[in-house]
Amino acid sequence: MPFDFDQLIRDIDSIPDCSRYGRVTAVSGLMVEVGGIEKELSVGGRCIVETRDRRRIPCEVVGFRQGRALAMPFGALDGVGLGCRALVAGDQAMIYPTDAWLGRVVNALGEPVDGKGPLPKGPHGTPIRNNPPNAHSRARVGEKLDLGIRAINAFLTCCRGQRMGIFAGSGVGKSSVMSMLARFSAAEVAVIGLIGERGRELQEFITEDLGEEGLARSVVVCATSDEAPLMRKQAAYMTLAVAEHFRDQGRDVLCMMDSVTRFAMAQREIGLSAGEPPTTKGYPPTVFAELPRLLERAGPGVVGAGTITGLFTVLVDGDDHNEPIADAVRGILDGHIVMERQIGERGRYPAINILRSVSRTMPGCNTPNENELVGHARRLLSSYDNMAEMIRLGAYRRGSDPQVDEAIHFQPALEAFLKQGKREATDLETSYAMLAEIFGVQWPQ
């Protein structure tokens, strides 16, 4: 492999001419107070604290108090004491992705964690904390995107550049749905952020759920639950930054994040440590300010650029779909997919409740024939759901309502349509054709 002299020159140019440092004046919980360089730092800036045993802990400035900078570490504070040096490390963190990042697993700082060697640096940097494109210069959402899951393709059609939320309690199948989307979607690149995941599940997701086929066109960003809250929060921003790099190259990117709730929990820990007042369910105000700043980065790019189709999971607390984070995220995104434990308990996966889910690009993205087909199926599902209790009790008498009779007749076939195996893919046209076949309709029309 030829030596990259241009990269060496860029690395040399990035070395600062001098180092400026202050001292640790206090440590309180997760927070480090730094004095002497407070005028050199700003909120969001970086400093590096040197421990007694010469380890270097990167920190981010989250506020100021009584003339001191408040810094949150990216790692454990073991070995940090009064008087430890804190070096100024710059204001804006940048990453330099390339196509060589595809198939790799990185942490919240953009460092490889898959044992496959160092990551090459691209010629152009992307800020980790970027701003979304200007609303007036943004393109509109594109054509329909095949996601490979027929329940979503038919009933909750997603367009390129759309942002959807997947709302579910723990253990209902969010990770399985994400792995299906990564393998089967028609997007060119997938960027997957695993925020606050269990450490043992990372390898399971990569090797079993994602597989070689899915990983080959994906970049996985991970921050496990045992890592510092700042690392978990940073992993979410890193996920969007990598997606923005590929979007700016004109590609259609599928950006998936599991989960936005753990991002909000990490921000809650940071905010409370910085002295913010707790509000709804203990979440400080910055949580509800950071959510739109994160989620708005997904979507269409400027005219002529690519798109970021965002699919963000929300771990609903106690299966309450109206808890604060779920409610806030639902108001920001362009649709929501609701997964319910009761559906999974009766053996139908993905456990999507079609009637409680919505895609805000429908029905505008469909043809009249597609809307008629999907609308008819929805009406039958709704009729059966309304009378389900009476049907199970045997209190409904056939012939009382023709639409309910039709719903009872087609219910087994519709349930089978909504059920799909993890290794089974169904494209958009096949999804409509299978739904039409249930009703005996010739497709395409």
Automatic annotation (TrEMBL):
Alphabetical keyword list: ATP synthesis, ATP-binding, Bacterial flagellum biogenesis, Bacterial flagellum protein export, Cytoplasm, Hydrogen ion transport, Hydrolase, Ion transport, Nucleotide-binding, Plasmid, Protein transport, Translocase, Transport
Catalytic activity, reaction form: ATP + H2O + cellular proteinSide 1 = ADP + phosphate + cellular proteinSide 2
Ranges for region Disordered: 115-137
Protein transport keyword on record: yes
Enzyme Commission number, as recorded: 7.1.2.2
GO annotation, biological process: bacterial-type flagellum organization; protein secretion by the type III secretion system
UniProt-listed Gene3D superfamilies: 3.40.50.12240
UniProt key word Ion transport: yes
Pfam families: ATP-synt_ab, T3SS_ATPase_C
Superkingdom of the source species: Bacteria
UniProt GO molecular function: ATP binding; ATP hydrolysis activity; protein-exporting ATPase activity; proton-transporting ATP synthase activity, rotational mechanism
InterPro entries: AAA+_ATPase, ATPase_a/bsu_AS, ATPase_alpha/beta_chains, ATPase_F1/V1/A1_a/bsu_nucl-bd, ATPase_T3SS_FliI/YscN, FliI_clade3, P-loop_NTPase, T3SS_ATPase_C
UniProt cross-references to CDD domains, sorted A to Z: ATP-synt_flagellum-secretory_path_III_C, ATP-synt_flagellum-secretory_path_III_N, ATPase_flagellum-secretory_path_III
Residue intervals of the AAA+ ATPase domain: 160-344
GO cellular component, one term: bacterial-type flagellum
Top EC class of this enzyme: translocase
Subcellular location: Cytoplasm
Predominant cellular place of this UniProt entry's protein: cytoplasm
PROSITE patterns tied to this protein: ATPASE_ALPHA_BETA (PS00152)
Family, as annotated: Belongs to the ATPase alpha/beta chains family.
Family annotation (PANTHER family): ATP SYNTHASE (PTHR15184), SPI-1 TYPE 3 SECRETION SYSTEM ATPASE (PTHR15184:SF9)
Its job: Probable catalytic subunit of a protein translocase for flagellum-specific export, or a proton translocase involved in local circuits at the flagellum.
Name used for this protein in its record: Flagellum-specific ATP synthase
Source organism (scientific name): Azospirillum lipoferum (strain 4B)
